[in-house]
Structures are given as structure tokens and as C-alpha cells.
Design brief:
Helix content of chain A: 25-40%
Distance between the termini of chain A: 95 Å
Strand order of the largest sheet of chain A: 3-2-1-4-5-10-13
Radius of gyration of chain A: 24 Å
CATH architecture of the largest domain in chain A: 3-Layer(aba) Sandwich
Strand content of chain A: 15-25%
Order of helices and strands of chain A: EHEHEHHEHEHEHEHEHHEHHEEEEHH
Oligomer: homodimer
Structural class of chain A: alpha/beta
Largest interface: A-B, 90 and 90 residues
Mean pLDDT of chain A: 94
CATH class of the largest domain in chain A: Alpha Beta
Low-confidence stretches of chain A: none
Number of helices of chain A: 14
Shape of chain A: elongated
Number of strands of chain A: 13
Amino acid sequence: MSHKILVAQGGGPTAVINQSLVGVALEARRFSSISHVYGALHGVRGIVNDDLVDLGQETVANLEAVAATPASALGSTRDKPDLKYCQEIFKVLKAHEIDTFFYIGGNDSSDTVRIVADEAKKGGHALRAIHIPKTIDNDLVGFDHTPGFPSAARFVAQAFAGANLDNAALPGVYCAVIMGRHAGFLTAASALARKYPGDGPHLIYVPERTFVVEKFLADVKDVYEQHGRCIIAASEGIHDEKGEAIITKLVGKAEKDAHGNVQLSGTGALADLLCEEVKNKLGIKRVRGDTFGYLQRSFVGCVSKVDQREAREVGEKAVQYAVGGVQNGSVAIKRVGDYAVDYPLIPLETVAGKTRVMEDNLISEQANDVTDAFLAYAQPLIGADVPEVAKLRAAKVAKAGVLLGDGT
Amino acid sequence: MSHKILVAQGGGPTAVINQSLVGVALEARRFSSISHVYGALHGVRGIVNDDLVDLGQETVANLEAVAATPASALGSTRDKPDLKYCQEIFKVLKAHEIDTFFYIGGNDSSDTVRIVADEAKKGGHALRAIHIPKTIDNDLVGFDHTPGFPSAARFVAQAFAGANLDNAALPGVYCAVIMGRHAGFLTAASALARKYPGDGPHLIYVPERTFVVEKFLADVKDVYEQHGRCIIAASEGIHDEKGEAIITKLVGKAEKDAHGNVQLSGTGALADLLCEEVKNKLGIKRVRGDTFGYLQRSFVGCVSKVDQREAREVGEKAVQYAVGGVQNGSVAIKRVGDYAVDYPLIPLETVAGKTRVMEDNLISEQANDVTDAFLAYAQPLIGADVPEVAKLRAAKVAKAGVLLGDGT
């Protein structure tokens, strides 16, 4: 029997999501049972609009160039199908005689695959539906980690390594806000930037713990008194004891996205708020805030080789599972060595619409840092070729003794 | 006669400022007439505090590792000496028998060198004082370009190349704010991100032109109607017709730095303001703002090889000029081929305290883009090895004709 397969990309882009797309496209070419590989433009929206492209007409050279390019080459969407939307999907799939659907995405996209698979079963449509993971948030249940996270983590680590040096040169307080609504993995990755004793980030705040402004200020004061400077990594999703996002305390009326989530990204408001607190309450003059924003998921030229390889492999494995007769599931990443992985297929229900957060043993007791367990977990993911930094050994010259206070 | 030389770093760090430092330290080792190479910690402040380190005790391996590390390895300062400060400087230099001073920095630092040289002459102190250039702003008069700019420009280009792809995947308006108080060179470098027709940034606003909010909104509307999305690069220094910074219109009371300048960096307020304008006035829903902040000057792992080489060479040339008997000056970069440079020594007065801005032929008539002349000027600086991006050629699949509106 001959198969037509369709692949699409959903949710926020990553540095390696196109590796998975190309993994599907190239792996499919190995199988004579696969007659066509189509791509849908802008995720499920491209299906209901019958906006498909023929990946069989792409050259290998261009596919490999696309694989090395960040962001979703097919375009993405935040659409989440309901029953009516699913019926439109089936209408188009049936008309094109497509019997296999691969959706590359995160929690919401895996839930889309689950809904589509469920509705197909109920409606008697013959459809294989497989979820291929990606998300910089690293928040998929059932996964050791997710494609996209290692490259974003590497960006965050390289950014903090530089920010630490910059701040050492011109001391003050520096606070950077990192993506991550519920899961602090990416913010935690800032810890990978440390090399020498005293290096920042000195404080790391993740959404898995309640953020208490007074505690934060006391932490900053302590670090500043000890080092004469302080570097802070804060997740955009930090919240108070009632679960209210710290950012909404500032902006009041916050924008909500298509899934009803408050907009946390694409604004520098949280970093500015935290800086204002430090300036006003601690009286420190040089206080600077950055929000890494879209750079952390899209910057061209910062990618983990481990991530590239794994993102390619989950695409390849999805095709192999489908050809092997699997009806549906999610291609997971399981760590089987230090460092080695395997790609078991797990049920869609394990992943769909659920959110993994950082395990307790990864967060320090004081809730303002990560543990060594986190470093051991994350270090292999960002690759062995992270650029190194160095400091002068700085042998002091004996003072000439001409200054007041030198005892002269 | 035996010389003791002192090197220091001033102003904002760059990705390659340590190349210049190491250029001085290693070049000095060639000359038996140079007995010691000292470094001052945190610029001129390290001199008045008699806080010196002996660079003669550094190993070549560590110096090379430091050269490849962003930010100022000796530490930096925003201090600008007056007469009293200069007298403290001379006291310490004399006590250590230092007769040569190299200061690596931008406008303010070159002015410091001029003041120190002037006061030394007036006071009869035998002191050679040479300015070694660095600034990501590219705003030194008498220079083709300045060390530090090419690497920052490369960061901006790679960031926009990624942001363009991200925005194409999830369309909307994206506005990123770039460093540059008076000179728009770094913001203009965003144009180097374009590859395919329709690629962003679609609009570029530099401080050399008056920023008119209504014109900006009309520009965004035009682009959005044409492309269904719009990417904007705006300099932090954009201002209205009276010269008032657009950011101060928002924040009212703005912080001023040690030189009396309003704080433009280390806050996301300008990007947020521009996004609010677009949302409210144009009714576009998905509008996101980023502020590249300190990443553009400190990110580890994004450097132009051209910049690395030239930053090293200006340090080497400074030592050669001093050994050759020069009293003072600034080591300039002159373009002598396409692409090749030379390093003439120019008078401190040419550089000190002055600000170069973008020449008129580099900015488009509509004041919302750069010209081809700018691209020809900037392209060789960022290096030939910038990571490439690629798009699918996306051969359309014929519509199945099952949708409403397909004529079925």
C-alpha cells in the first residue's frame, strides 16, 4: 500500500525545529511505500486552508541548508483545533489521500495531535498521527529533555557568560529575564555560564518557587555586599504566593494570547520592574535590566550540536514508527547513558496538554539557585564546543605608597 | 633608555577590546627597550588608586585566551579626569617610573588621553599618551570604522536574521531596539540580515534623522499591508524634532549617567512604547518588542574575525608608534582597499570628545532604511563566515477543491 504523509510545525519556533522537518522529509525518501511527503504551511491552519507544499520537490542541498536554519520553515500557528476544525482537517486530508500526519510542536501541538487522532478514530477516518517534540521550555512530560531546549540553553549560557564579564568590568546589578512561563529549565541554564569563583549569575529565580520581593531584595543585598556586583537570572513566569505573575502586578491589564495565556514575552516590563525595585529599595545606582526575548529561540549561529542531532533523529524515528505500523504516539527522548539517548514512542496522553516543571532536586533549598544535579543534567546537552572565556591572572604590582591612606 | 608602559581600558566593553590589550602586551615583549608592561584595573581609576597588575607575569596561552574573551579584562570605568584627577595620575605614574600610557576606549576615553597629555605637557611630566580605539557605536571622527563595531554589527545582523525567520513563522509586528545614542551605525547593521526579497528588517530608524511617530505608524501600516508582517530596527537614541529622546517622552524622569547622559540602555521601555503605539493606533494584535541590551556588546561566541584581527593590530601599532618616539595620538583605521586597512596615527584633537554620525549617503531618502552604500561599507566588516539561512522553495500542491470558496 502506498502512503501520502503530511508534516507540519506548530507553536513557538526553535533553533532546531527544521532539523526534525528535514529528518522526516529525508527519511521518508528511503521508503518506496511512501509516495508523497507534503508540508502544511503554518501548522494545522495550512491543512484547513488546503495550503500544502510538496517536499518531494526539494533538493537535498536545500533541505540540509533549511535544517541548519532556525525557526519553522513551514511557518507556524497557535491554532488549537476543536471538533469542527478537525472535520475541516479530515476533509482536506481525505481529498489528498493523506493517511499519515506528523506534527512537530510542544504541549499544545501534542494536544492537537491527540484531538485529531481521537476525532479520526471516532469518525472512522484511517489516520496515523504522530507527535514530534520541540520546545525551548523543556516542559514535556515523559521526556528527559526536548529538542530546542539545548540550543536555547546554550544561548542563555553564552549570554550570561558575556553579561558576567561585562558586569565585572563595570560593576553594578544586572537582571536578565528569560523565557519560561511555568518551567524554569531555561532560566536555570544560566548557571552553565559560571567558570571562575564569584562568576554570575549569582541568583536564579524559577517559576517553580514563589517569588517574594522582600526575599529577592535581601538576596541581592547580600550578593552585592559580598561581590560589589550582582547578576540575576529571572524567569518571565515568576509569580507571588497567590500565583499572580509578578509582571501583571506592574502592567495591570495584560494582553492574553490565543490560548488565554497572559503575554509575558515581547516586553521588557518585568526586567524594568525588578530593576526599579533594586534601585529604589537598595539605593544601588548602576542597575541594568535585559530581556533576552526572541533572540533566545531564534538567534542565527548559536546551536547545540547535540540538539541538532537529536532533533534530526526524532524526525527520522517518527517516520520509522509510522512505516512500522504505529497508529499514534509521541517520539520521546530517554537518556540511556552519560551521555546517550534513545527514542521510545510514548502514548499521546502522557504528553498532551501537560506541563513538566523542574524536579525539586534541581532547585536549591534557598530557591535562588540550581543544584549540582541540575548542572550534571544540563551540561551534556549544550555541547562540548561552547566558547571558553578567560581572565587575567593579574599579579598585583606593589603599591608605590604615594597615595593618602597608604600610610605615607 | 628603558621604558615602563601602562595600559588601561575605559568605557563600555566590546567583544574584541581584549584583543587590543593583548596586542599591546605581546608586542611590547619584542622590544628590549620596554622593561615592564603594567595594566591599570578599571581604567584611570586604577591609576589614581594605584591598582596595577604586571602583564609581564601573564603567560602567552592565557593572554591569547583572554584576547578571545569579550569585555574588558582589566575592568573599566566611566571616570573622566579633571586637573586634580590628572595630578593624582601623574603622582602614581611618576612613583612607578611609568613614561608611556595606552588607553583603549571610545570618545570619552580619547578625551581622557587628550586631557592627560595636555596636563602632562603643562606640568612638565615626560609622558607619552596614545589612544587605542574601541567602540561598538562606530562614532570616532577620523576613522573608517572602530574596533568593536564589526562584532556588534555581526551580532545585530545574526539576531535580525533569526527574528525575521521567527516573525515569518508567526507573523506580526516585531520591533527591536539597538544601542546607539547619536550614531545609527549599529542599528543600520540590521540591514545586513536580509537575504531573500521581503526579508526584514523592513524599517530602520537611526538617530541621525528626526523620528516622527505619525510617519513611523504610516510606515508600519504600509509594510504590514504589503507583507502581512513588519520588522523594525530602532536606535535607542531616536528623538523628536526638538531633539528630545523618544524614551524620555515615556519615562518622564530619566536616569543620567556620570557624563550627564540620559540612560537609554538597560531598559526595555522604548521597545515597549513603540509596540504600544502600533497596537493602539494600528489595531494590530501580535506586536512584540525586544531590546538587544548588553548582549550586543558582550555575547560570548559572536565575533567578526576581521574585527578580532584589527583590534589586535591597533594594539600592536600603538606600541610600535610609541617605541618609534611618538609623543601622543590616536591609532586610526583607514580603509585602503576592498577590503584592506592601514593604521595611521592621527592627532588626539581629531578624535577627542567628538562624535561621528552616519554620513547622509548611508541613509535612505525616506529616513526609514539604509542605502546600498551602507551595505557596501558594512558588509566586509562582519566577516565572510556569517552563518547562512535558507528557505524551502515550497512547490505548492494543487488544492483539492473541497473548501468553501474554492469554487466547489
